[in-house]
Design goal:
- This protein is α/β, with parallel strands linked by helices.
- Helix content is 30%, strand content 27%.
- It has 11 helices and 15 strands.
- The strands form 3 sheets. Strands 3, 4, 5, 6, 7, 14 and 15 form a 7-stranded mixed beta sheet that branches. It has a 6-stranded parallel beta sheet with strand order 10-9-8-11-12-13, with helices on both faces. A two-stranded antiparallel ribbon has the order 1-2.
- Helix 6 packs parallel to helix 7.
- It is globular, with a radius of gyration of 20 Å.
Length: 334
Amino acid sequence: MAIPRQMHAIHFDAPGGPEVLALTEVDTPQPKAGEVLIRVAHAGVNRPDCIQRAGHYPAPPGASPLLGLEVAGDVVALGEGVENLAIGDRVAALTPGGGYAEYCTAPAGHCLPVPDGLALKEAAALPETLFTVWHNVFQRGCAKPGETLLVHGGTSGIGTMAIMLAKAFGMTAIVTCGSDEKCSAARDVGADHAINYKAADFVEEVKAITGGKGVEIVLDMVSGDYVPRNLKALCESGRHVTIAVLGGMKAELNMAFIMSRRLVLTGSTLRPRSDRFKSALCSEIAEHAWPLVADGTIRPVMDRSFPLAEAAAAHARMEAGDHIGKIVLDVAPE
């Protein structure tokens, strides 16, 4: 198939609400050394996309200004030096940007082969959450079998992935959700316990579930005034991992409490990390987690899909908070 000089992509002229997103034509990107060009079948929609659209999360230097951090599709061109992939390979890729388009470049080291039995739509819903959860729960959080993980936003893409990985690696998963319906959905995914944070104090509920001990790890997307409450839910020597600040960037902490219980506070942002770091992370995922995708143990929880031209509606759904699982864009469906 010939690669066109121009392609359809989602663009916005100025930051704003979902309505600023529009379908336009832009030049088709060319793969640089070490990159591949992917004909996009589907692109995942993630919270950072919404934050970038609103003007609060600029693309890193050298990255595409277009939205889109994960895609799945066919490799159609190879950059210089790429040897581990071939034209025609079906891949799921973590991208530094550019996924909301008919074609997208990605470092070859950030691509994972789409196994038989996994639809490209599902494959596109995996990279961002899988890379994020693996790095933060298993690398930074040092998760071990037999430990208990508390996850806020249990029915989000991150939350559902965290549940599945925790259970696959012998952990107990406790999640918080904003409704009884979402709590039920989280339990269906595999959560051992789901707490409706609007109806109960999650700190007290965690203490009751764990017999007063607390959890070993908290994966927090809220931050703000949740942080001191999260720390009270941790056991001694527990680890608090922050991956987003949806509830505010500042938290008031009692450092004497942290010292007395030997707590560890850490966190990360994935997008600005180097290609080399993300390639190493991808290799570890390929060894330890991707086989669980290949054998069907892990499948993304899918919410809704929207045509590429309706990216604004996809963002509106995400920001409304009603979704359960992943939202994707259909670019060139199978």
